[in-house]
Write a structure and sequence with these properties.
Elements lengths: L4 E3 L6 E3 L36 E7 L1 H13 L5 E4 L11 E6 L3 H15 L3 H9 L45
Antiparallel strand pairs: 1-2, 3-5, 4-5
C-alpha cells in the first residue's frame, strides 16, 4: 500500500510514513502519489496539438533509458524511440520523446537528474558562462574549437570537419 511509505523527491529513497525528512538530502518527504499530474501541477491539455510528441534527447540506449526512468519516477510521460527505425539520424541511437505540454517540465527534470549525478556540472556551467574552459578553468580569449590548455572539445564544430557520408539534408543533424 503506497500510503505506508514516503519517498525522497531528491534521491528516490523510500521511508516509513511516520518519517518526514530524508536524512541524506534534508528535504521533506512526499507520498508516491504526489506526482505533478496527480497533484494538478501538470494539467492535461485540451488540444491535440499539445499532445504531439517532441524529441528532447538523443543518444545510446543506456543514456536514453536512464533518462526515461528518471522521468517515469517523476511521473512525466515519455517514450523511447529507435531513431534509425523512425527515419531519424544516420548515426542511429534512440530518441527520448515527451508530449509537448510537459516539455519544459521534462527538460527541467533531466537537468536536475544530471546535476544530482554530477554536482560538478554547476561549476562547469559557471566557468563556461564566464569565458573559461569548463574543465580546467583556462581563460579563453576567443571561441576556439578546443581548449588550448587541456584540449577539451568545446562543441564549436568546424563545418570543414563534417564527415557525414549521407547526401546533405537527408538524415538531419548528425
Amino acid at each position: 500500500m503506497t500510503t505506508d511509505i514516503k519517498i525522497c523527491p531528491e534521491c528516490d529513497a523510500e521511508f516509513f510514513a511516520h518519517i518526514s525528512e530524508c536524512n541524506g538530502c534534508n528535504v521533506p518527504l512526499v507520498h508516491p502519489d504526489a506526482s505533478p499530474i496527480a497533484t494538478g501541477e501538470l494539467q492535461m491539455p485540451d488540444s491535440d496539438e499539445a499532445l504531439r510528441l517532441v524529441t528532447i534527447e538523443q543518444g545510446d540506449i543506456a543514456k536514453i533509458g536512464e533518462l526515461h526512468n528518471a522521468l517515469n519516477k517523476r511521473d512525466v510521460p515519455s517514450e523511447v524511440i529507435n531513431a534509425t527505425a523512425a527515419g531519424g539520424s544516420c548515426g542511429g541511437g534512440f530518441l527520448l520523446q515527451v508530449p509537448e505540454y510537459v516539455k519544459e517540465t521534462a527538460i527541467a527534470a533531466i537537468n536536475d537528474h544530471w546535476h544530482k549525478l554530477h554536482p560538478e556540472l554547476g561549476d562547469a556551467v559557471e566557468r563556461e558562462e564566464s569565458g573559461q574552459c569548463p574543465a580546467c578553468g583556462f581563460t579563453l580569449d576567443s571561441t576556439p574549437t578546443n581548449c588550448p590548455d587541456c584540449g577539451l572539445n568545446l562543441g564549436l564544430d568546424d563545418p570543414a570537419d563534417d564527415d557525414c557520408s549521407e547526401p546533405s539534408g537527408s538524415c538531419g543533424p548528425c
